[in-house]
Amino acid sequence: YSSYYHRNSIQQLELPQRKAALIVPAFETLHYRLTFPKSKAELLSMLDMGSLYTFRYHVWPKGHAPTDYAKWRTATVPYRVAWQPDFEPYVVVRRDCPKYDQRFVGFGWNKVSHIMELDAQEYELLVLPNAFMIHMPHAPSFDISKFRLSAGYRGCLQTLREEFHQDLSRRYGAAALKYLTAERSL
Predict the structure, then answer these.
(1) Most exposed among 92, 128, 147, 149, judged by the fewest C-beta atoms under 10 Å?
(2) Quick one: which of 58, 70, 2 has its CA closest to 30?
(3) Total tally of structural domains belonging to the chain
(4) Known PANTHER family for this protein (predicted)?
(5) Which domain range does residue 98 map to?
(6) Rounded CA gap, 100 and 145, in Å?
(7) Per-block average pLDDT, block size 10, for the chain (186 residues)?
(8) What is the pLDDT at residue 13?
């Protein structure tokens, strides 16, 4: 169902001919065993019963809030969303899209910087109304543990973020100022 839906969406939205990132709304469960919902209606029921949550809403809501889950609940066609600071959705993109910035290996800022670059290149951010993914619980990664425990790690990440902003400014000029302004206002 899922791969068929994605292939169909890619064809209907003419993804090969346009600059678009198809956003797959993300959810999570705290249960180690879960019967995966077979439809959006079933997922919404699980969400309403509290066995699923919107992804990271309790620890990092900014990462996925721009997906606009309230709109997604009733959406029947793809809808466009605007970039916002720290947005890090899961996306389906053309193979020739910008690659992930290799500075951001380990934990922190890989998806955020990628979406920022897609937005800078004027990719449309389109939420798929009938797609979804579910994150299952797992042990914390080695890298997130380093991020949480090491001020040095966090300092290095901040330096790389500043460097990334400078590179965006060089590549996209004034259009990239919104990213730096957003970063400074947080």
Answers:
(1) 149
(2) 58
(3) 1
(4) GLYCOSYLTRANSFERASE-RELATED, XYLOSYL- AND GLUCURONYLTRANSFERASE LARGE2
(5) 2-10+17-184
(6) 22
(7) 60 74 94 87 95 86 93 96 95 91 88 95 95 84 81 90 92 83 66
(8) 66
